[in-house]
Each structure stands twice: as C-alpha cells, then as structure tokens.
Prior knowledge:
The chain is of the alpha/beta class. The chain has a single domain (about 1-155), classed as Spore Coat Polysaccharide Biosynthesis Protein SpsA, Chain A. It contains six helices and six strands, in the order αβαββαβααββα. It has helices at about 1-5, 25-30, 55-70, 85-95, 105-115, 140-155, and strands at about 10-15, 40, 50, 80-85, 120-125, 125. The strands form two sheets. A four-stranded mixed beta sheet has the order 1-4-2-5.
Amino acid sequence: MLFALExxxxxxxxxxxxxxxQPEQLPSLLEAITNHAFVIGTRSxxxxxxxxxxxxFLSLAGNQAARLMIPTGLTEYTTSMRAFxxxxxxxxxxxxxxxxxxxxxxxxxxxxxxxxxxxTEVPIHFMDRTHGQSKIPKHQIWLSASTLVRLSASRLRGxx
Length: 160
C-alpha cells in the first residue's frame, strides 16, 4: 500500500492470490472506484459465495456482527477484494492501522467510514479454494472478535 502511494498509483487493488477472487470481476471494482474512494467486493448484497459448513457460518457471522457493531451501510467487511484511491490509502496511513491479522479487513472499513470516505460495494462471486486448506489460524477468529468489540467501543466513546 505504501509502495502504491509513493509511486502515485491511481488505484490500488487487492484480492486473494489463490484465485478465490476472480480477476474477471476486477472491472466492476474499477468502474465503481471512479465515483468512490473505496470499493469492496461483496459476497452478500447481490454477490455469492461457494463456502459451506463452518467456513460459511464464520463468514456470515463475522459480517453480520460487523454490520451490527460498526454499521457503515456496507454488507461486506471481511473480504480482501478491494479497490482504494490514493486518498483512501492516505487516510489509512494517517489514522494508523493497529491490526495486522485478519481483523485488518474490518478495521480498514471502519477507519475509512469514520473519516468520511466515500465507499461502495459491488457484487462478486467468491469461489472456495479447490486445493489446500484455509490458512486462517483459529486464534485469529478471537482476535478479530476482540477488534470488533474495540472498534464498536471506540465509536461509542467518539474516538478511533
């Protein structure tokens, strides 16, 4: 992200490297970023996901908890298919991101929202991996939950 800022990228895009996020869906993010500073691909509001079982439950529960505890108007908080303008990246560096695990995804949405950043989401289809296993350590689930509580409490206090 810092490299993108230092090299004056017009748009910075992130996605999963295992092709769970499909490159052919990038044009919809790039189209939406022309009118917003931050765009996230959503698996819920018009989007879809191949998850089943525990992974589906955790994804749905995590996003539902985020929508309730730190509402932004978005339906998606946890996917990494995102597009940022330089202004959005600058906000993240100015505000400072505390979390370096998976909670980072929720924290960036909250920081951008609280900063008044223009945000939107576009529907995507998220494909579950066909090889390998999830690399999310179980303790990251608890760390993400505690980050969500911290972000919600900071809203109530009026601080970030």
